[in-house]
Amino acid sequence: MDMEKVNSMDFGEFVDVFGNVIERCPLIAAAVWSQRPFSDLEDLEKHFSAFIDALPQSGQEGVLRCHPDLAGRELQRGTLTAESQREQGAGLTSLGAEERLRAELNAQYRARFGFPFVLAARLSDREAVLRELARRLHRPPALELRTALGEVKKIGRLRLADLVGADP
Amino acid sequence: MDMEKVNSMDFGEFVDVFGNVIERCPLIAAAVWSQRPFSDLEDLEKHFSAFIDALPQSGQEGVLRCHPDLAGRELQRGTLTAESQREQGAGLTSLGAEERLRAELNAQYRARFGFPFVLAARLSDREAVLRELARRLHRPPALELRTALGEVKKIGRLRLADLVGADP
Hints:
Two copies of one chain form a homodimer.
Chain A: H1 3-8, H2 11-18, H3 26-32, H4 41-54, H5 57-65, H6 73-77, H7 82-88, H8 97-113, H9 126-136, H10 141-164
């Protein structure tokens, strides 16, 4: 898909295609449509990031709260979006000892920060995910919010590249 | 459901219950959770409205773009959310002459404002909807944006009252 095609979309098409670039936040894609035309993929990404950065803190936390909890109840219930299922890879849907530890750390993380642990999981193996969760669990909340939003943007960048058909 | 129950919800439960108070914008419910505890239904409503008011214009337009197009392609495709289907009432899913006129006016409205025509349809009969669409089609864009967001809030108020089980 080239940018000419992207720029020719009406808002309905644009939201259909890009609505889940930020997990369960079609509002953000719908807002980004106001910024068309886009010069290239990087420009398109930039507008998704800028929108998130401009949200009040509650809105940034809200973006994170729309993400599935890795090893959390959405995985157990099977209500992940197709994109999330793919990104979280094979094997994470059955709960072994490692997953129980992760579920416990996740619960602590949620209680401490008020949003779920978000990581661009496609980039990491399972052990790295657990290590990263343990590392981030004790950071200052303001710093962790920034880190978590960075992961949201990284996920969005990968999804955009998939959708537009470019190398990330 | 009393406010004590609402205030005791973790963000996952809160988003499950209130995620579609603003159509397809769970981000907004997820952000509003930051403002708990809520003193009463009116207080809860106020935070949904305040979040919308604080969005940049692109975000406010984005909220509107997440709404189904009355008599538009979502109706024809049958992809309305359960709430929208109920609110739009019986008979609006078959396209007769009046619906074709409405589809035409809707298309003009979308082209002019860059978002779909939104109306708290549960409050009106079909003729009133068409009359309102024709009336709003030629207003100044800034004024129409405010009016449309007012309808979003009205819809949200009705949905909140339904969910909490109070009279609107």
